[in-house]
Amino acid sequence: DVQKDRLEFEIVGWVKGMKTYSIDYRTILGDTTKKETWDRLAAVLNERFTRTDGLEMTIKVMAVDTGYNTHYAYDFCRRFDPSRVIAIKGQESLQVPFNSPTTVDIRMDGRKTGRVRLLNLGVGIFKQRLYGYLKQTLNEDGTAPDGYCWFPRRDSHYFKGLTAEKLTAIKDKKGYLKYVWEKKFERNEPLDTRVYAMAAAAYIGVDRWTEEVWDSLINSYERSEEEKPMER
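RE: above sequence
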């Protein structure tokens, strides 16, 4: 999520059944018109995250919102293959999770400076899906249902931000009811970043991965030195 003076992002781990672990939530402070701020985000792509079994993972795909400081967000996304970093833009009116990616021009002061692949999101669909996941509890046998979300201990500010919006029925100018997402807590970045993570996962097809795809991906990861068996 891009703001004037910071970048906020969540790193989410996905497991079979669309279950998720919130691995980290961070803020990069800095002017988002400056390359050095974006360079710090680029470095996150090279970080390695170690599971308890020693498997070391990197970020599979990063979604970057381009609704604010659009030119600079586009420039960042252009550094990478769109299979690794995808430019996104939320559309409340879109009635599908996302459209097929389109190629858009990047312009600065009226001049075309490049092109980038852009994914338009139906953010309302992802928000409804997330709120459904958040309502779930563990099964009686202690197992987690599909879509279950695990979080580390965080302060209430984070969880207020994660549930900062409410789907509200209002009447339009013609008197027809329509549903809109309204803020009930000012800072909604935790909600936005989780929606973008869900979109990134859907973009690469996590919800359609077979057992074979999951196993192949797991087998492609390296094991940390501490967990590697000793040679004899």
